[in-house]
Structures are given as C-alpha cells and as structure tokens.
Design goal:
Order of helices and strands: HHHHH
Number of domains: 1
Keywords: Membrane, Transmembrane, Transmembrane helix
Largest sheet: none
Protein name: DUF3784 domain-containing protein
Distance between the termini: 41 Å
Shape: elongated
Length: 99
C-alpha cells in the first residue's frame, strides 16, 4: 500500500540529485535567474537540499502506511503540503542570492 509514497520519494530524490549535480542549469521556473547570474550554482544547491524534505516526508508516509493502511488517504495530503512549503522556503531563500 505504500508504493505511491515510495514512488513520490524516489521522484523527489532524483530531482534533488539532478539539481545538485547540475548546478549551472536554470531548472527552477519560479526563480528569477537573470538577477542572480553569478550565484546560480549556489542557488541550485540550496534548492536541492530543500527538496530532500518532500522525499523524507514521503518516506515517512510509506513507513506509516505499511503499518496502518487506513492512513493512506489522510497522508496523501502531506505530499502537496510539503512541496508547497518547500517552494515557499526556496522562493524566500532565493532573495538572499539576489533572485
């Protein structure tokens, strides 16, 4: 029953690895990169570390659902909430980099 959460955790982990491994690429669509031309690598690594939060949330949900399958429906809302929180966190932190 925890397979959707494991899939989401894998997707977020892959996104974080790609963002960390390709720091010069402009991958985030909600960041104004021209304002932070010289700090793109630092901004992407900052965002990559924050993207680990939804992966950890989904791993926790998969662990909880493995023991109690009835929790799957209420826990499905934690995925978009964690993503929204991370997007706000990254956007707020991007101001430090001038973006």
């Amino acid at each position: 029953m925890g397979h959707p959460f494991l899939l989401f955790a894998t997707i977020f982990l892959i996104l974080a690895i790609v963002l960390y491994a390709a720091p010069g690429r402009k991958l985030l669509n909600f960041v104004h990169y021209p304002a932070a031309q010289d700090q793109v690598a630092r901004l992407n690594r900052y965002a990559a570390l924050r993207l680990l939060l939804p992966a950890l949330v989904n791993l926790g949900c998969a662990w909880a659902v493995a023991g109690r399958p009835g929790l799957m429906v209420p826990m499905i809302f934690l995925t978009p909430l964690s993503v929204l929180g991370v997007v706000v966190w990254i956007a707020a932190g991007a101001r430090r980099f001038g973006a």
